[in-house]
């Protein structure tokens, strides 16, 4: 956390009526990352949580969470979801599931509805260096959304994520179990990583941060000891798991060769290829200065890899 005194800073909670808890709407709550954000917020007795789902909600409230139907692609459904909400946390994305259009039109609808509802803080999951990658569709969608948020006048926190070490379908862990490390491009180009548990914690902290000092901040998330090459990441995994791994590399030349023809069959795979080709530029590097300031010291790569390996039962 920052060492600056916060007691004189007006907080979101100070704007609430006496006795009323901070109301947070989680958008993307049914996703892999969104579910982790939700579980962390549930541990905070000072907040009231509403979770938005596109599916019809049965019963309204489950435990400490109020579930409500809402769809970013259905603007008419959003006012009810945002009614009485102080803070929005959005980790929603469509490009991995349906269409990149969800990320453009859906984000616009949510931002406009949040502005009309008078939301006091809009926490948005973005991507490190997204402004530098116009050829990568889902990176560009994040940049467009960032610009819309800034233009809306909403107080915001843009939490920018690097590459995920873990996924809902963890291909790295599956490879390690088979004695392999799958690398893209080469073993030497560095880019930044994050463990999704740590990213979820940062997003939850951004929602509940007790000072308006965090308002209108863009915060990169990453590791304290900087970006890592895939060779370095493989070495860390070997150190932690004590497994011998063979490295299988998909070369940059192959990605460049197949990028255009693969677009004819799969926009998603084209997007992913463009993402990796952007990593090659060396610009996908997180600056964790603000992460340390607002959320506490960033973890080291060794700490993150150790926790990842433990969660996947890879430590002997």
Helix and strand arrangement:
Blueprint: E1 22-27, H1 32-41, E2 47-53, E3 61-62, E4 65-69, H2 78-82, E5 87-90, H3 100-117, E6 121-127, H4 137-152, E7 156-161, E8 163-164, H5 171-177, E9 180-185, E10 190-191, E11 193-194, H6 196-208, E12 217-220, E13 228-229, H7 230-241, E14 246-251, H8 252-262, H9 267-279, H10 289-295, H11 301-311
Parallel strand pairs: 1-2, 1-5, 2-4, 5-6, 6-7, 7-12, 8-11, 9-14
Antiparallel strand pairs: 3-4, 10-13
Keywords:
316 residues, 11 helices, two-stranded parallel ribbon, 19% strand, single chain, alpha/beta, Rossmann fold, disordered N terminus
What does this protein look like?
By secondary structure, the protein is α/β, with parallel strands linked by helices. It has a domain at 12-165 and 193-223 and 285-299: 3-Layer(aba) Sandwich (Rossmann fold), CATH 3.40.50. The chain has eleven helices and 14 strands. The strands form four sheets. An eight-stranded mixed beta sheet has the order 3-4-2-1-5-6-7-12, with helices on both faces. A two-stranded parallel ribbon has the order 8-11. It has a two-stranded parallel sheet with strand order 9-14. Helix 3 (100-117) links the parallel strand 5 and strand 6 (121-127). The longest helix is centred in the middle third of the chain and has 18 residues, at 100-117. The chain is globular.
């Amino acid at each position: 956390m920052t060492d600056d005194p916060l007691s004189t800073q007006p907080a979101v909670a100070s704007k609430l009526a006496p006795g009323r808890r901070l109301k947070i709407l989680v958008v993307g709550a049914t996703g892999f990352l969104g579910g982790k954000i939700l579980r962390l917020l549930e541990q905070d007795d000072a907040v009231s949580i509403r979770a938005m789902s596109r599916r019809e909600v049965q019963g309204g409230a489950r435990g400490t969470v109020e579930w409500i139907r809402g769809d970013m692609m259905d603007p008419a459904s959003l006012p009810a979801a945002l009614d009485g909400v102080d803070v929005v946390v959005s980790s929603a994305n469509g490009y991995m599931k349906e269409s990149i259009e969800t990320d453009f039109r859906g984000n616009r609808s949510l931002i406009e509805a949040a502005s009309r509802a008078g939301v006091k803080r809009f926490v948005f999951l973005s991507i490190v260096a997204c402004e530098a990658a116009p050829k990568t569709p889902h990176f560009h969608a994040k940049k467009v959304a960032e610009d819309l948020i800034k233009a809306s006048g909403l107080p915001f926190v843009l939490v920018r994520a690097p590459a995920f070490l873990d996924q809902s379908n963890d291909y790295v862990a599956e490879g390690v179990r088979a004695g392999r490390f799958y690398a893209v491009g080469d073993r030497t180009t560095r880019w930044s990583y994050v463990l999704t548990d740590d990213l979820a914690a940062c997003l939850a902290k951004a929602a509940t941060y007790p000072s308006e000092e965090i308002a209108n901040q863009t915060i990169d998330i990453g590791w304290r000891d900087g970006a890592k090459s895939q060779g370095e990441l493989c070495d860390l995994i070997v150190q932690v798991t004590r497994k011998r791994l063979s490295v299988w590399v998909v070369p940059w030349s192959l990605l460049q060769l197949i990028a255009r023809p693969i677009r004819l069959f799969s926009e998603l795979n084209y997007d992913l290829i463009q993402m990796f080709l952007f990593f090659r530029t060396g610009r996908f590097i997180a600056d964790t200065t603000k992460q340390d300031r607002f959320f506490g010291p960033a973890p080291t790569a060794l700490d993150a890899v150790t926790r990842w390996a433990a969660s996947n039962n890879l430590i002997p």
